[in-house]
Amino acid sequence: VLDSQYGTYVWPCAVVLAQYLWAHRRNLPGKRVLEIGAGVSLPGVVAARCGAQVILSDSEELPQCLQRCRSSCLMNRLPHVPVLGLSWGRVSPELLSLAPIDIILGSDVFFDPKDFEDILTTIYFLLEKNPQAQFWTTYQVRSADWSIEALLYKWNLKSIHIPLHSFGADKEHLASSSLPGRHTIEMMIISLAQSEGT
C-alpha cells in the first residue's frame, strides 16, 4: 500500500482500538481525547459518539488525510469535531496550544520504524503536559525485529500490554481484513514512567 494511501483505509488496528473504546464507553463521556495519525478516524469517531470531547489529527503534510478525518466526522454527524494538522516529532503552534488531554489514541501508528522516535517524542511531550493522560495504541505485528522498548526507556515512558480477550477483541472476524498480509494485532497503554527510582 502506497504511503499516500495510509489514511484511506479502516485498518484492522483501528477496529480493535474502536472495540476497546466501546468496551470502556461508560468511562468516555466528558473525557478529552486526541487521536493522532487518525486517517479515517474510526477510534476517534467512536469516542466522540460515546460522549468524549475529541480532537482528530493527522500529518499537516497529508491534506488528503486531514480531509478524510473531516469527511468521517460529517458522515457520522459530528461536524464540530476539530481536525488538526500535527506532524510527529515537530513542536508546532497547534501542538503547543492543545487543550488538556486525558487520552491519546493511535491505531497502527507504529508502522514504519523510522517514525517510532518521532511518535514517542510527541507522546512524551503530550504526557509531560498531561501527566495523568494515557496513550492507548494498537499495532500490527509485522516484524519480530522491531521494538520500541529502548525508546520507551529513553523517553521515560512505560507500557502495559492489554490482552485482546479482555475486551472481546480476540475474535477472528474483528480484525479480519481484505488487505494483504497477516493481521496479528496487539494493544498497549503507554504512560509516563515514575520518576526517581523506577
UniProtKB/TrEMBL annotation:
<keyword id="KW-0489">Methyltransferase</keyword>
<dbReference type="GO" id="GO:0006325">
    <property type="term" value="P:chromatin organization"/>
</dbReference>
<comment type="similarity">
    <text>Belongs to the methyltransferase superfamily. METTL23 family.</text>
</comment>
<dbReference type="GO" id="GO:0032259">
    <property type="term" value="P:methylation"/>
</dbReference>
<keyword id="KW-0156">Chromatin regulator</keyword>
<keyword id="KW-0217">Developmental protein</keyword>
<protein>
    <recommendedName>
        <fullName>Histone-arginine methyltransferase METTL23</fullName>
    </recommendedName>
</protein>
<keyword id="KW-0949">S-adenosyl-L-methionine</keyword>
<comment type="subunit">
    <text>Interacts with HSPA5, HSP90B1, TUBULIN, UGGT1 and UGGT2. Interacts with TET3. Interacts with STPG4.</text>
</comment>
<keyword id="KW-0963">Cytoplasm</keyword>
<comment type="function">
    <text>Histone methyltransferase that dimethylates histone H3 at 'Arg-17', forming asymmetric dimethylarginine (H3R17me2a), leading to activate transcription via chromatin remodeling. Maternal factor involved in epigenetic chromatin reprogramming of the paternal genome in the zygote: mediates H3R17me2a, promoting histone H3.3 incorporation in the male pronucleus, leading to TET3 recruitment and subsequent DNA demethylation.</text>
</comment>
<dbReference type="Pfam" id="PF10294">
    <property type="entry name" value="Methyltransf_16"/>
</dbReference>
<dbReference type="InterPro" id="IPR019410">
    <property type="entry name" value="Methyltransf_16"/>
</dbReference>
<keyword id="KW-0808">Transferase</keyword>
<dbReference type="GO" id="GO:0010468">
    <property type="term" value="P:regulation of gene expression"/>
</dbReference>
<dbReference type="GO" id="GO:0005737">
    <property type="term" value="C:cytoplasm"/>
</dbReference>
<keyword id="KW-0539">Nucleus</keyword>
<dbReference type="GO" id="GO:0035242">
    <property type="term" value="F:protein-arginine omega-N asymmetric methyltransferase activity"/>
</dbReference>
<dbReference type="InterPro" id="IPR029063">
    <property type="entry name" value="SAM-dependent_MTases_sf"/>
</dbReference>
<dbReference type="GO" id="GO:0005634">
    <property type="term" value="C:nucleus"/>
</dbReference>
